[in-house]
Amino acid sequence: MLLDDKVAVVTGAGPGLGRTLARLLSEEGARVVVAARTAATVERTAAEVPGTLAVPADVTRIEDVRRLAGTVIDRLGRVDVLVNAAFPGSHRRNVLDMSDGDLEAWRAAVETGGYGTLLACRFIAPHMVAQRSGSIVNLTSMSSRKGYAGRSDYAAGKAAAHLLSHCLADELGPYGVRVNCVAPGWIAGDVLDDWMRTRAAAEGVPFEEILARDVSAMALRRVATEEDVARAVLYLASDHARAVTGATIDVNGGQLFT
Question: What is the pLDDT of residue 89?
Fold first, then answer.
């Protein structure tokens, strides 16, 4: 197994991609620690991925992340992989249409994507430095390279994590710690389907027409799945990528070439 006897921490390990990441890392032999803002969320993930350790933690709070790092070391003795996948739900709103509440939500999104990723690295990476090995994988997005109307919160938060990864790769490389990104595009699931149905209703066309139009813009003619994204993370987390740092793997079906 690719991660046999390694310890992996996944932030943002709630429903969807975070849970899929935890499951795949566990199946590949890792002892997995899952973290999310609310106890109920992270405990559900742990219940679905047997053998995992659940630690409620808000990645934008220094004391929460410091406690997360300490708990991992106290309970498991080391940390080999950190996957930063935390990001709040994003709603579509053009900047000039934002209310005061929207502006606060924008700030929270960017804090989670940028500052939250920074804090997790700040308190977990020192243990990797001490053991002279480790892999950090930050979940960014196709939107970290190309902005879209109404998605400035998502784009700015993910872009912050993207460039932070480059800085950390340079800082931590001399200690044998690798830092990379996986940048998903659209991911198949209910959220994407709901958005396509909204667009279909607005245009007065069937859902299937919107889906076919969008998929036709992808070189592979299919939408990536959570499993596709998780397997890219697995590669970067494993020793198969031992000479890879500062890199980004795009998982978007060929929707955007970089």
Answer: 72
Mean pLDDT over the full length of the chain: 95
Contact residues for 238 (Cβ-Cβ < 8 A; gap 6+) = 2, 3, 28, 135
Q: Which two tokens stand for residue 27?
A: 């199946």
pLDDT at residue 20, rounded to an integer: 96
- Domains in the chain (CATH in brackets) are 7-187+225-251 (3.40.50.720), 189-222 (no CATH)
pLDDT in tens, 54-77: 999 999 999 999 999 999 999 999
* Confidence check: pLDDT of 132 > 80: yes
Cα 30 to Cα 16: distance, rounded to the nearest angstrom: 19
Does this model's pTM top 0.85? My answer is yes
- What is the chain's Cα-based Rg? 18
Tell me the backbone φ, ψ of residue 136, rounded to 5 degrees: -110, 130
> Whose structure tokens read 């890879």?
244
Q: How far apart are CA 23 and CA 28, in angstroms?
A: 9
- Span 40-47, average pLDDT: 94
Active site positions, annotated: 154
What pLDDT score does 91 carry?
74
